[in-house]
Design brief:
Length: 124
């Protein structure tokens, strides 16, 4: 019996394609775009608040990258966040900030905040 070379090769290609599709990581999933996939665990961003635009905070991380954070009504903050604050923010995989912690400077003292009505000026 003589088999046509293209038919025999076609069976091998189909078989190889089936094997590749069955092995995770070998065949690409066309419904998944790796450039837009988000991590499945909460992420933490540390840095200085550069700008506040409504429900978005722009934070510069220690490497100099600017990160835009989405703050919702459910975001918990341990103090008043304003431009210049050094913060640590925890985000959901969807990108919403769940909590913001104000960072205390390494010397252990809180930053001096001018014109705070809750603190009386010290008398020399």
């Amino acid at each position: 019996m003589i088999t046509h070379p293209l038919k025999a090769g076609g069976v091998i290609l189909v078989l190889a394609g089936s094997i590749a599709a069955a092995i995770p990581g070998v065949a690409a999933d066309p419904t998944r775009d790796s450039s837009t996939s988000r991590p499945s665990t909460p992420q933490t961003v540390k840095g200085n608040v550069l700008n506040i635009e409504g429900e978005f905070y722009v934070v510069q991380d220690p490497t100099g990258h600017e990160v835009r954070l989405h703050v919702t009504k459910d975001t918990k903050a341990d103090g008043l966040v304003k431009v210049g604050s050094k913060i640590e923010a925890t985000m959901t995989p969807e990108g919403d900030v769940t909590s913001i912690t104000l960072q205390i400077p390494p010397n252990g003292t809180a930053p001096v905040l001018p014109n705070r009505p809750d603190r009386a000026p010290s008398v020399p």
